[in-house]
Structures are given as structure tokens and as C-alpha cells.
Request: fold
Amino acid sequence: MNLLDEVPYRELPAHYHRADIFTLPALADEWGLVVNEAMIAGLPVLGSVYSQAVEDLVAEGQNGWRFRPDHSDEVFEALSRALDCSRETWNTMRAKAIETVKPIGSMHMKDLILRALEDACG
Reply:
């Protein structure tokens, strides 16, 4: 395991591509954009249910695993599920992670925001 200091934004993709899994053990998080970034790099996500991005994007056992970080038994269970995957399952999950977030681009987000504004304004 390597722990890094601050990494310049332009170097992030290289770090994601060197990893095997992305973990977000947040106790609270509106939308961890790092989940999108990790998934587009093909990383299954081991993430906290207290992150909206994990709740919306991570499908248990398909492109990652969810857990409550304040419940140690769930942390260990999620880690066990992640570490017990076969290489074939792992590769399928990597592809599914990319597939999950690939359609979510700036134009897609713009359309969602515009739709929400139109709904709010009538």
C-alpha cells in the first residue's frame, strides 16, 4: 500500500490506473467525484453508504461493494467479498465500473440540471 501526499490533478489518472481498487470510507459525503473518477479508470469501488455517489453508482458485487464504515463487521465483510473475487470476476467488475459512469459526462449533467430547473420553474 502506498500513501501519497497531495497529487496534482493532471497526475490523478496515472495513479488511478496503477490501482486495483478504490476505497471511500466516508462518514458523510454529498457526492464524492472521486468515485466517478475511479470507476472511469476501471476500478471497482469499496465505498461507504454514507456517500451519495456510492449509493447511486455502486451496485453491490457488480462494480464494487458497499459498507457502513462505522460498523466494523460490515467493513470486514466488504473487504472479504472484495478480496475473495476471482480474477475473472474482478475483470468483469472493472468493465462494469467503466460502463456505469461512461455515459455520465458534462453534457449529460447539463441536461439533468436543465431538466431540474425546468421542473422547478414550471
